Amino acid sequence: QASGGPVPCDRDGAGVEGGVRVGYDMQFGRWVVGAVGELAGTDVEDSVTGFSTTPAYYSFTRNLEHTAALRARVGYVAGPALIYATGGAAYGKIENKFATDNAANSFTVTADEDDADGYQFGGGVEWRLAPSLTVTAEYLYSDLETGDYNIRVAGNGTTPAANPFILAPNTTGTDMIRSNDSFKTHALRLGMNVRF
Fold it and tell me: Tell me, what's the pLDDT at 3?
């Protein structure tokens, strides 16, 4: 990626996921109440890049590697279909990355937390194909709060004394972090369930 000016930009990549889930439902007339737990492997990226007039770029990238969730769900049976809403707690594992073409300074990772906690909610339709087999189409929104990821920018042998990263009072360097610690995703899912 080349420097493109002083305006920061965001880049959110589409991704894929696959997982397994277990759940338990109770039916009261046409109403269904239950809970579901799931584990999913994901490949979703959230990246932001800032630019300086030197010119140079500074990119922070987060990759969501997998998630776990425990959600409640409430649904209504209409013929072979169960129309439901779901929501609950979620956890994610994050891989943080940093890249720059600034060769004058040194860059050191001083904090790198890979845990993210938050919540999910959404809804879907579960369609019965057979007494013990259903297919599901679902939308799910996730909002995870990521941990600290800190880059310490300092000088080295080629850094001029007027370098803004090491000017007083930051003679030991300047810390760079992302301004937003929220990792949000929108997912459209297709699945198959075996009921016992």
Answer: 38
In the chain, which residue ranges form alpha helices assigned H by DSSP? none
- List the one residue out of 126, 129, 87, 93 whose CA is nearest residue 112: 93
- 165, 170, 175, 180 alpha-carbon torsion, rounded to 10°: -90
191: which residues sit within 8 A by CB, 6+ positions away? Answer: 21, 135, 136, 138
Give yes or no for a contact between 8 and 49, defined as CB atoms under 8 angstroms apart.
yes
Distances (CA, A) of 139 to 83, 87, 123, 126, 133: 12, 11, 6, 12, 20
Regarding beta strands 56-78 and 31-52, do their DSSP bridges make them parallel or antiparallel, or are they unpaired?
antiparallel
For 90-147, how does the pLDDT look when each residue is reduced to its tens digit (9 = 90+)?
999 999 999 999 988 889 999 999 999 999 999 999 999 999 999 999 999 999 999 9
Determine phi and psi for 30, rounding to 5 degrees. Answer: -90, -5
